[in-house]
Amino acid sequence: MVIEINREVLKKFPELFGEKIVNGRKVVVEDLIEKLTREFRSDIDRVVRARREWLNDRRPVREKATFPRWDEKFVDADGNVRTFREIVQGLIDNFLGRDTPLRWGLNWNTPVPDDLHPLKNPGLEITGPWYPMSRAIHQINADVASMMEDEEDASPAWFIPWGSGRSVAAVWEARRIVKRVLEGDIPTPYIEGGKAYYVKKERSKWPTLIHRIPGLHILDFDIRVDGRPVPAVITSIVIYTVNNYDQLKKVGSGVYFYVPKVQTPDEALVIEKILRRVEDELGLKRGEIKIAMLYEEARAGLYLPVIFWIWRERLVKSNNGRWDYLGSLIEMWKDEAVYPDPQNITMTHPIMMAYQKYNALLCLMAGLDREGKLNAAPVGGMAAVMLYRPDDPYQRNRYNARALRAIWLDKLRERLIGLIFVTEEAVSKVTLKDILEGKVKGRLYDLFRQSWVATPEESYVKAGNEPLKASLEELQAMINRPVKYVEVDSVKIPAVDSGLTEQERQLFQRLGLIDENGNITPWVIRPEMLDSPEKLFNNVELWGGKDLWSALYEPPKGDITIEHIQHAFYMAANYGFQLLNGNLAAAIDDYELGQRFMNDLATYRIFSTWLWTLLRHKARITKDGALKGPAKTRLGVIPADDRIKISAGTQFDEELFEKLWELHMEWTYAFYEDLDRISAERILLRFVENVKNILHNAYKAGPFRFQTPIDTARKIAELFKVEELEKAVIENQPRFDRSFASVIMDILKVKLTSPMYLQHGGRLIMVLAPLPDEERSTVLRALFTPREEVEKLVKEGKLKSYVLELYDYIHDIR
């Protein structure tokens, strides 16, 4: 068999396929997809299968999730074999400037392009889909260092929601938009939804474009080779590279990828081999395609030096993907421990601080070249609060000041974490001031200069950029600025341009970022602290009084509260509903924060995984509390009415879950009722002024001396023309298909109460969303049935054959 491409895709997007001239070479897009699939599909199947086997391995975490043995061997894409000890020793040798045969570092052969270098381009990186084109224009216009066109967590849908009227998944239009934008084919103005959009920057001022590819576990059902869906990562890499390489090179840029979800050296090696084959096909230099790593899997931390070593020709930065990372930690311990409320495990929690510092230190150690220049750096995590619009019906925009302060503080914290001072002097703590004044000898590294953001909102981006772009001298001055507040509902919130408040100072001091006098205190590292592999992993002075494994992986202590359980279900259900509708990047009203919070597959992973572990272990609630029913509040209709009292010690079992489920269903109906009230008021508001004028004439004398009641009523009725009302009804229509509300509730009930665990469970929603209503429930239950029974039902004709393909996909059976 040969390659088969969805006919609708070929019909609608012919410009993405066929013969192209790239870097002076002739390339046929579909031929290259087929070639790479035949060469690497078995490798991808093998590493994905290994993920499932590891996940199902019931050995204790402390036994199966250890750092590699010192003598364990690893291989790179050139066939070089080194033990774990040799790789780590080579990393140490590079950091200490020892010119040994084991020494290695990042990007020594093909330099990092200036537009991609994370230390030469301080500021925020914005991520999101490029469909529709307005989103691409927003990213271009934003004051950011990089724009990340996304085909992963916040991607345009890879599927067609049932009833959407689409014939092709939205991701295909996004790919065409990328091609059009890079070719300069942007209408001026671009009109969308009656609104005009303009690109406000000349091409040389655009942020650097980075393409986020899908994970190895994702399949592309629009393209098949030998009857099987191709790995989506291959489709994504080929279409982006072949269609856009020449345009990117014309403007002094290149093909850059963000690589997600990598867990092991084997997975990293597969990605490396695919990229090398693409470079060979296009006649590119080895390492010309550069990558950034999403360090978002806890398991990847076990192998981080090895992954860096395998990617040493092209790895430029490593991002702290905070959400997936927390989800993967909960997942790692799913069979033997229950995490406390994940809402309380923020980036200032000790395990998350160790995670950020580990990433920063390895980027430093591997990033140095032989002349001491840095070729790589860490990148901070997502800031994802979305500001409320001024016309919010509940005036929740009054809380936007809190969001602005939060991103400023978040990025300041990251910047300070990345200050590492290497010295041979016998000191354990120094201030930035003393370093800048030359009072202590050593070298200061300033590593966290980039970080992620989810919205191009100008004031939000400005607040996040300030700590990242500031000079070292300005950092201390920012901390010492006068403390200022804005008052919201009688609550004082620190202003975005305020110095650190006393509470914030206490937090930063606890984190070791400032001293008792408010002076910035970089992380001090003396060479003898890590001059051997054993010291790097076991020196408690490096890792906050613990060895590295314990600092990264030991489950934290804390409360499990019924309120946070309900909040987790609320967030999972709301995101799942939007995902069913084809929206992978969903702004959800987070009633705990009082803000809109951008959710994606990673946040869904956190909450759904945590809820699954609570049910599996019948975890006990640790504090008295209550499940809440819907109530109208200043934040809208939210779970706020204490309905069912829950005592400390109560088990979270299926009976209690059922009560939670029912209350969320009740909230859903109350929420929709209130949305309809808001729409009704907005529609009627269009006519208020004219109705007022008619009433004025009727009431101004008598009343009704000049205008009778019946004439007044007729005049008012004449205002409500069908055409005008139709326009108003359409303008106020809900964005999403509400019929999917009951669907996500059914999915969550089956998924969370099943003993079968799904990794990256968003795929379950993706495969169910395109199915007609009459098939979806049957398929859902089949997907949580033992495979041999599903196979039997397919053979007997009681299930359609595609169900088995979907089963193997979501369970990573390859």
Automatic annotation (TrEMBL):
Top EC class, one word: transferase
Please, one GO biological process term?
Answer: tricarboxylic acid cycle
Q: Where is the Malate synthase TIM barrel domain?
A: 208-416
Query: Can you state which reaction this protein catalyses?
Result: glyoxylate + acetyl-CoA + H2O = (S)-malate + CoA + H(+)
Q: Which InterPro entries match?
A: Malate_synth_C_sf (IPR044856), Malate_synth_sf (IPR011076), Malate_synthA (IPR006252), Malate_synthase_TIM (IPR001465), MS_N_TIM-barrel_dom (IPR046363)
Give the enzyme's EC designation.
2.3.3.9
MF term (GO), any: malate synthase activity
Q: Per the UniProt record, which residue ranges are transmembrane?
A: none
Alphabetically ordered keywords of this record: Acyltransferase, Glyoxylate bypass, Transferase, Tricarboxylic acid cycle
List the GO cellular component terms: cytoplasm
Q: Which Pfam families match?
A: MS_TIM-barrel (PF01274)
The Swiss-Prot or TrEMBL record describes its family as follows:
Belongs to the malate synthase family.
> What's the protein here called?
malate synthase
